[in-house]
């Protein structure tokens, strides 16, 4: 049963530290998404890749966030430096098309 | 600009009752998706609606799409507690590069 995997599942870090979240999309899926979810803001699309090329990262704070797909089996989301307001659950999703997405379990990030 | 509005945003109902969640969107699209999120969990796909008049059903949930009215509905029949979750709709924009999410409807079903 193919699944999207994310690591780490939980991360607690201090303000100013670099955070890297990793995602392994389902093999064969050509779209990959990063989302952030908080109680206050709900579900926010941060970045979207198709065939490893970034298509939309307008929802991502450019000064501290970066998203990459170094290869088809790995997507990364980095925050440098992290701030307390970055505390959220970060989801990665992959899919065969833009709308049909399979979500990973999420990374719960706490920045103190 | 494509906008997606769900209503209600919060719904508390009794078991056994019927109710409908609405998803309105602001531009032409013939692709709409419904997702479910259980508390503390990830999102999972519920329904994929790809044409005007599409209707999908699974158990006590039925989703439909009216592209002319730019409206999708998620109907709950004889609700049970296990259906308590947050339900999201998402619409693909004309450009095929945009996927816009509704804010989600938090559904609580009381025994």
What keyword list fits this structure?
heterodimer, A: 112 residues, mainly beta, 7-stranded mixed beta sheet, 4-stranded antiparallel beta sheet, 0% helix, B: 111 residues, 6-stranded mixed beta sheet, 5-stranded antiparallel beta sheet
Structural description of this entry:
The complex is a heterodimer of chains A (112) and B (111). In chain A, 0% of the residues lie in helices and 55% in strands. Chain A has 112 residues and is an all-beta fold. In chain A, a hairpin with a 3-residue loop joins strand 4 (31-38) and strand 5 (42-50). Chain A is globular. The N and C termini of chain A lie far apart (36 Å). In chain B, a hairpin with a 6-residue loop joins strand 9 (85-92) and strand 10 (99-101). Chain B has strands at residues 4-7, 10-14, 19-25, 32-37, 43-49, 55-58, 61-66, 71-76, 85-92, 99-101, 105-110. By secondary structure, chain B is an all-beta fold. In chain B, strands 2, 4, 5, 9, 10 and 11 form a 6-stranded mixed sheet that branches. In chain B, strands 1-3-8-7-6 form a 5-stranded antiparallel sheet, with no helix packed on it. The A-B interface holds A 33, 42-43, 45, 48, 55-56, 91, 93, 98-106 and B 31-33, 35, 42-45, 48, 88, 90, 92, 96-99, 101, 103-104.
* Series of H and E elements of chain A: EEEEEEEEEEE
Largest interface: A-B, 18 and 19 residues
Share of helical residues of chain B: under 10%
Q: Please, how many helices of chain A?
A: 0
How much of the residues of chain A is beta strand, in percent? over 45%
Could you give the distance between the termini of chain B? 41 Å
- Poorly predicted runs of chain A are none
Largest sheet of chain B: 6 strands, mixed
| Average of pLDDT of chain B | 92
Number of helix segments of chain B?
Answer: 0
Which structural class do you get from the secondary structure elements of chain B?
mainly beta
Class derived from helix and strand content of chain A: mainly beta
Radius of gyration of chain A: 13 Å
- The gross shape of chain B turns out to be globular
What is the assembly state of the chains in this entry?
heterodimer
Low-confidence spans of chain B: none
Strand content of chain B: over 45%
Number of E strands of chain A: 11
Mean pLDDT of chain A: 94
